[in-house]
Amino acid sequence: xxxxxxxxxxxxxxxxxxxxxxxxxxxxxxxxxxxxxxxxxxxxxxxxxxxxxxxxxxxxxxxxxxxxxxxxxxxxxxxxxxxxxxxxxxxxxxxxxxxxxxxxxxxxxxxxxxxxxxxxxxxxxxxxxxxxxxxxxxxxxxxxxxxxxxxxxxxx
Length: 156
Known about the structure:
Elements (H helix, E strand, L loop, with lengths): L1 H5 L7 H22 L7 E2 L7 E2 L4 H21 L3 H21 L11 H24 L10 H8 L1
Antiparallel strand pairs: 1-2
């Protein structure tokens, strides 16, 4: 059973490959929806207060990061390097974009700052996913290394 769960996806039948990838993307999406609130606007701490607080919590962000890094490591170990970026970082980036785009802007005229927020968060998530996937690829057995050996064999 462990061999089936950790073997390279390219060696598995196509329905199993795509089901695994679909479940990974769904888990990434569900984790974002559970860990990050949909409405990201800051709120006054108390009515009439000048201090604002964000609905995003440190526990939610840490939980999201932990699950996304785990998924990235799993898909980095099993699949080609581009798939973790698409499956793990793509759904949270799309959901964050939708969330920021659909919420009304703050009344102080800072409505145009959301693309910078989205770009920074997307870059951060994508970079972390790529690093985790690359590190996980190092733990593959030598004979399962992707196409590097095949390319070398063809050139010699």
